[in-house]
Automatic annotation (TrEMBL):
SUPFAM superfamilies: Radical SAM enzymes. It holds the Pfam family Radical_SAM. The keyword Manganese does not apply. NCBIfam families: rSAM_more_4Fe4S, sulfatase_rSAM. One of its GO terms (molecular function) is metal ion binding. Its cofactor is [4Fe-4S] cluster. CDD domains: Radical_SAM. InterPro entries: 4Fe4S-binding_SPASM_dom, Aldolase_TIM, rSAM, rSAM_sf, Sulphatase_maturase_rSAM. This is Anaerobic sulfatase maturase. Belongs to the radical SAM superfamily. Anaerobic sulfatase-maturating enzyme family. Residues 1-211 form the Radical SAM core domain. Signal peptide: none annotated. Keywords: Iron, Iron-sulfur, Metal-binding, S-adenosyl-L-methionine.
C-alpha cells in the first residue's frame, strides 16, 4: 500500500536499516504485555503499524498466549487496525476466537476508496480490501470501518454512509485528513479536507445517523464514533474519543524497538518519552515528558478561550493545529466544529436527556 495521505511511512527514517527490518522482537512484545498488566486492571492493546499483519499470524498467537499468562484471569481487550490486504480465513478464525476488534481502512465505495488508497503500482485497492472486510464480518468478527475524510471523499457523505450501511458495516469511524504538503512546507497537502467542507460533511452525516436512530427503543442502528463520544460528553460521561478530552495522554505508542511516544500522530525525535527496556509503561505514563505533552492541548489561543464550544473540543487535536501553516497554530477544523455544533446542539441535548431518563428509570 502507498496511500497518498499516509503520515506514518516516513517514520522509518527515525531508525537505521530498511523498513522491513523494523520488526518488534519477542522480548519487546513480552515486556509490553507484562507492563500493561502491571499498570492497568483492564488493559487495551491496539496493534497498529504501518501494517501490523505484516508481522504474521504467529506473532499474534504468541501475543495472546502471553496476555493470558500475565492476565491471571483479569479482563483485557485487543484491537487491530489494518489495511485489510493480507487477511484470509485463517486470520478470521484467529480474530474471531480471540475476540479482536478489527478496524479496516476502507474509505467508502470504490471510486472514493481508490482515489488515494493505491498500491505500489498505482492501482486501486478497493476490491481486495472490501472483500476481506466482508469476509471478516460474515465470519462473525467485530469489524469497525475506518474512513478518512479527505478533499475527495468529503463530497460524498450520503453515498459513503449508505454504502457502509448496505454492506452491514454498522460501526464507523471518520477521520479528517490534514497534512503538510511534502512539496511545499508552507501549505497543506492537496488531499487535505477543507474546514468548511468537513463541517458540512459532519452535519450531513449526523442527519443520516439520526434518521437511522430507533427512538422508541432508544437503540442505534449504526455507530459513528464521533457522535457516540459527543453523546457521552453531553450525558456527563468521559468520552472514549481523545479529541473531546481536556488533556491528552490516555495512550502510549510503543515502536518496534521499544521506544515510547505519547501519540501516534506525533512520533518524532523530540516527542520520545523513553524506551520500554529502560523504563516501565507505568513510569512512562507518569513521566514529566508525557504529562507535559498532555498539557499541550490546553495551550490554545484567545479565540478558543472565548468560544462557547470550548468545553466540547478543548481546542481539538494537537496534530490538527500544526499541519497547515496557514492555521498559525489554531485548529484546522475549528470552523468545522462550530458549524456542526451550532446545528447539532439541540438534538445532542435531546439524546442526552433520553439516555439519562432511560437509565435513571
Amino acid at each position: 500500500m502507498r496511500c497518498d495521505y499516509c503520515f506514518y511511512l516516513e517514520k522509518h527514517a527515525l531508525y537505521k536499516g530498511l523498513p522491513a527490518t523494523h520488526r518488534m522482537n519477542d522480548a519487546t512484545m513480552e515486556k509490553v504485555i507484562e507492563d500493561m498488566f502491571a499498570c492497568s486492571d483492564t488493559p487495551t492493546f491496539i496493534w497498529h503499524g504501518g501494517e501490523p499483519t505484516l508481522m504474521g499470524l504467529d506473532f499474534f498467537v504468541k501475543a495472546v498466549a502471553l496476555q493470558r499468562y500475565y492476565a491471571k484471569g483479569r479482563e483485557y481487550s485487543n484491537a487491530i487496525q489494518t489495511n485489510g490486504t493480507l487477511l484470509d480465513e485463517e486470520w478470521a478464525r484467529f480474530l474471531k476466537n480471540e475476540n479482536f476488534l478489527v478496524g479496516v481502512s476502507l474509505d467508502g465505495p470504490e471510486h472514493v476508496h481508490n482515489q488515494y488508497r493505491k498500491d505500489l503500482r498505482g492501482n486501486g485497492t478497493f476490491q481486495q480490501v472490501f472483500e476481506n472486510a466482508k469476509m471478516l464480518s460474515d465470519k462473525g468478527v467485530q469489524v469497525n470501518v475506518l474512513a478518512t475524510v479527505n478533499a475527495y471523499s468529503v463530497k460524498y457523505a450520503e453515498e459513503i454512509y449508505k454504502f457502509f450501511r448496505k454492506n452491514r458495516f454498522t460501526f464507523m469511524q471518520f477521520m479528517p485528513v490534514v497534512e503538510t504538503d511534502p512539496r511545499n512546507p508552507d501549505a497543506a497537502a492537496p488531499y487535505s479536507v477543507d474546514a468548511k467542507d468537513y463541517g458540512v460533511f459532519l452535519n450531513r452525516l449526523f442527519n443520516l445517523w439520526v434518521k437511522d436512530f430507533d427512538f422508541k427503543r432508544l437503540r442505534q442502528k449504526t455507530s459513528v464514533r464521533f457522535f457516540d463520544a459527543l453523546i457521552q460528553k453531553y450525558v456527563g460521561m468521559v468520552p472514549d474519543h481523545c479529541i473531546f478530552h481536556k488533556v491528552c495522554g490516555d495512550a502510549l505508542v510503543v515502536e518496534h524497538n521499544g521506544d515510547l511516544f505519547s501519540c501516534d500522530y506525533l512520533v518524532s525525535e523530540d516527542t520520545r518519552v523513553g524506551n520500554i527496556h529502560e523504563m516501565s509503561i507505568g513510569e512512562a505514563f507518569r513521566s514529566r515528558d508525557h504529562l507535559a505533552f498532555g498539557r499541550r492541548k490546553s495551550d490554545f489561543g484567545i479565540e478558543c478561550k472565548e468560544c462557547q464550544w470550548l468545553d466540547l473540543c478543548y481546542g481539538g487535536c494537537i496534530k490538527d493545529r500544526i499541519r497547515d501553516p496557514k492555521d498559525k497554530g489554531h485548529n484546522h477544523f475549528c470552523e468545522s466544529y462550530k458549524f456542526f455544533f451550532e446545528r447539532a446542539d439541540k438534538r445532542l441535548r435531546k439524546f442526552a436527556k433520553l439516555y439519562r431518563d432511560h437509565y435513571q428509570n
